[in-house]
Design the sequence.
């Protein structure tokens, strides 16, 4: 992290879920000076225009995710049928200015304050990093010692220290928040704030993280939101049932 003292809010994989995003922003109020979105603003969920409007209003640093790219281009041939159906639905409802915003999003890696931001991996925005083996190249190839990534919808990350890669997950106890995690200046990190709008780590609560560059610490957080209301909007929009159901399970 850079030498300056600042607090960064990291969010990722909102997936057009405005209710989850608003819950995160309310919980994070007063905790950050700068905000970063690691991609997948749209896709899956019922609120693509509303979520983009909110991100734009906040002036976040944003990079594109694979669903953002698919919505911007109309190409989703690598997606499963439910994901592709959601992209087609999204494209039919995006306002022109929001489609253009998606089309203008930069791909990672993006560097700021001594950190690097990517969606998937340092070399491939579509790559899923779910294991230490998959993390190795990004840990070694990133131009910074701390890289933030999304895409997996799993909160936590990987640490490279003394030629050993370790995975870590925030140790939540019931509904308590995890204690801030101090970052070892001798280690390299890949850090995932988790998914705002569609977690897949067994916890359906919206996920985010706050990085304190002065203290070299990361605070992982979760916040409950009204999942049923999002599911109701998705059903009303005719979005695929598997996408509706999985919100309640965090899988």
Sequence:
């Amino acid at each position: 992290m850079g030498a300056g003292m600042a607090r960064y809010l990291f969010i990722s994989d909102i997936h057009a879920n405005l209710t989850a995003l608003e819950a995160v922003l309310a919980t994070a109020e007063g905790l950050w000076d700068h905000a970063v979105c690691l991609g997948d603003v749209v896709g899956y969920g019922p609120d693509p225009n509303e979520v983009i409007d909110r991100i734009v209003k906040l002036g976040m640093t944003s990079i594109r995710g694979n669903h953002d790219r698919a919505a911007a281009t109309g190409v989703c041939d690598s997606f499963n049928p439910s994901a592709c159906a959601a992209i087609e639905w999204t494209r039919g409802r995006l306002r022109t200015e929001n489609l253009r915003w998606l089309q203008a999003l930069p791909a990672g890696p993006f560097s700021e304050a001594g950190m690097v931001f990517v969606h998937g991996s340092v070399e491939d925005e579509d790559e899923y990093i779910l294991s230490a083996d998959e993390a190795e190249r990004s840990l070694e190839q990133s131009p910074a010692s701390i890289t933030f990534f999304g895409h997996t919808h799993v909160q936590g990350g990987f640490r490279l220290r003394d030629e050993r890669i370790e995975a870590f997950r925030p140790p939540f106890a019931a509904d308590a928040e995890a204690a801030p995690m101090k970052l070892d200046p001798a280690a390299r990190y890949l850090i995932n704030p988790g998914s705002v709008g569609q977690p897949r780590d067994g916890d359906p609560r919206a996920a985010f993280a706050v990085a304190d560059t002065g203290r070299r610490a990361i605070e992982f957080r979760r916040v409950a939101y009204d999942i049923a209301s999002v599911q109701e909007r998705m059903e009303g929009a005719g979005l695929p049932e598997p996408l509706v159901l999985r919100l309640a399970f965090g899988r």
About this structure: Residues 18-28 form the longest helix (11 residues).
